[in-house]
Amino acid sequence: MIDIRHPQVRSLPPVRKQPVSARAIALAFFFCLGAERTQAQLPTSLPTSLPTSVSEAEQLIRQNPELVRQQLRQSGLTEDEIRAQLVARGLPPEALNSFLSEGPINPETAFRPGSLDALQLLGVVREGADGLEFMEPISGFQPGESTDSAASPVFGHDIFRRATSRFQPLLSGPVPDSYRIGPGDRLLLLLTGEVELSYDLEVTREGFVIVPEVGRITIADIDMTGARALFRQRLSGFYSGIERGTTSVSLSIAELRTIQVYLTGEVRQPGAYQLSSMATVTNGLYAADGPTDLGSLRNVRVRRKDGREFFLDLYPYLLEGDASGDLTLEEGDVVFLPLKNRRVQLKGAVVRPKLYDLSDNDDLTNVLAAAGGFAAVADRKRLTVHRYLSPSDQVSNENNRIAIDLALEPSEDPRAPSYNGGVIIPPVGLQDGDSIVVDSIPPLSEGLYVSVAGLVAKPDTFPWYEGMTLRTLMSLARGPAVGADLRQAEVTRLPTNRDEGGMAERFNVRLDSSYLTLRPSGGVAGAPGVAFDKPGEAEEFFLEPFDLVQIRRQPDFELPTTVSITGEVSVPGRYTLLSKEDRVTDLVARAGDILESGYPNGARLFRALDDLGRVDLDLPEAMTNPTGVENLVLQAGDSLHIPVYTPTVQVLGAVNSPVTVLYRDGQDFEHYIAAAGGFRSDADEGRSSVRYANGLAQTRSKFLFWSSYPSPDAGSVINVPAKDPNDRIDTVTLVTTIVGVLSSLATTLVVITN
């Protein structure tokens, strides 16, 4: 399980891997020895085969990098939690960098020092019968094998369960200035500057070190600050540069000594342990695989060789990370874990339903706080304490428990005494064996629902529950959408007169501004243009299963829409329609009117609505007669274009010389055809057309035997199409047909005359 350790307490790094032969000999030796101390230092289970070498492990991991990443992602731990696990076990936090990142994995650099230990610690790989192998996909942090693989029901016990049989305490690393030096510590003494010297000094059993040229310095039981001052004093008599400041003295711990401590009482692996001289009580409990289910962490006893005793309550450490009471161990300390005293059970809708040990002053409020408070689904109206009767009150063959039902008082003051999760907890004393049950809110009734449709932000169907109101449903629907008519809502309901043929009942429910969505800065974000009742003026409306709520649109409500004008106007751009009666000339006026370079006759109106496209428009007529039909009413998305005046006429198609001709007022169609060299022999004169600058097109008009061509205007284009060769009639056939018709006509006339 996850190990909670004081951040200043460093665990021991893994012991360097020995050759297979050496480790095999060591294991055989330990099996034969059988002494209590040796057994206490053995892991709770042994691998079924000899450990895989580092090279084999490295090869396995490099061949399966994505499988490693997959296993880590299925562990249920975050990246920060995994790194915290590694640090707590004395492993480098970057040992699994490649596998924790999101980018591609480079197999050549993925394996780092500590990777194998880290992956075994997290349960990704293990030493199987045939060597190192991947474990099945894991879920959550996997503890190593132990005599009791089940999770402990007692709060805090799982923290100390050993995570891997390969873990060994940290023997080196930085130490605080308060660390007291003792026999077995190795010191590193450095002189730099005028003198460059370094000494590796081991503190003897008598508590001193010998510095060449300086002699014996007694250092035992002196903290690091005092030791540095002592060395500086002794060395300054031999190296004058120290006093002048040209030579500096540095003293650090090269390797920590080990101490032997004893863990007894209700620990899973009692015995003697070799620990770091910086180890604390929690380090010792971790080495001993934590407490048994009968042990208590509320009154841990530490007895020193000099007869002094210390008592530790580890709950502040477990609940708040407060390690101020985590005592640093000394040589020969005996750590005794007592039997539980008062223990209660917390069940139901709490964050951590567990068994909790009580101190002398703990009550119901303290236990709920230790359990993390109420869960989100907790029914915070009441809770129940189940209690064993005292022996004098017990009756044979009857239930010897009583149930104490406690009502909880709502409160909005977190500073109130006994406050927890929005309620006040009664000051009830607890007894050993009490079981506290917090009920959950009943689940939503299956199959029962209500629906909301229309102008709401989230029209949907929602589960119904007893006491559900229209206001609650509107909140679930994220409030009304813009344009909603909140003067009333329509609710339809299953009829009570179904036997009379009724299909639904209808209710018109009055609403008020409290149904609007509140703005963070104050006020409401509601639909404009409607006067709402003040909050609280509308009565609550309670919903029933299968109700359908309709929020309708305000009459004639429309969001602001825009039109645009481009080309030769003073201020082209996009304009908002001010009313439903805005016309073309209104838009021209808002754009500052047409410039002298503009050509009103060529104005074009494009309508996006329904993909209609260009709309015929006679802008001069609209400007002359604003109330006439030519002055079109604008619609959303309309675009008006005023072109530049172009005093030319183009003649294209089946003419002898297609040309652009200068426009001359009063000249007709034939004038421009003549300017283009006249019609070609294949010209289809009858289908000639004139397309004006505003997009309008006209062709030759006919009446009996008379025809006329449209008159071009400035910016017009004359197009003369060519005849289709497939439509040409053979001249001989035509003459023969005409002669036949005339002969028939002559014969008919002769017959009639006679």
Topology at a glance:
Elements: H1 20-33, H2 36-41, H3 54-63, H4 65-73, H5 79-88, H6 97-100, H7 107-110, H8 115-121, E1 125-128, E2 131-134, E3 186-193, E4 197-202, E5 208-211, E6 215-218, H9 224-236, H10 241-244, E7 247-255, E8 258-265, E9 271-276, H11 281-287, E10 300-303, E11 309-312, H12 315-320, E12 334-337, E13 342-348, E14 355-358, H13 364-370, E15 382-388, E16 401-407, E17 409-410, E18 419-420, E19 423-424, E20 435-438, E21 449-454, E22 460-463, H14 470-476, E23 488-493, E24 505-510, E25 517-518, E26 524-525, E27 548-551, E28 562-567, E29 573-576, H15 584-590, E30 604-607, E31 613-615, H16 619-624, E32 639-642, E33 648-653, E34 659-662, H17 669-675, E35 689-691, E36 697-699, E37 701-703, E38 706-708, E39 717-720, H18 731-753
Parallel strand pairs: 8-12, 13-20, 21-27, 28-32, 33-39
Antiparallel strand pairs: 1-2, 3-4, 3-7, 5-6, 8-9, 10-11, 10-12, 13-14, 15-16, 15-20, 17-19, 18-19, 21-22, 23-24, 23-27, 25-26, 28-29, 30-31, 30-32, 33-34, 35-36, 35-39, 37-38
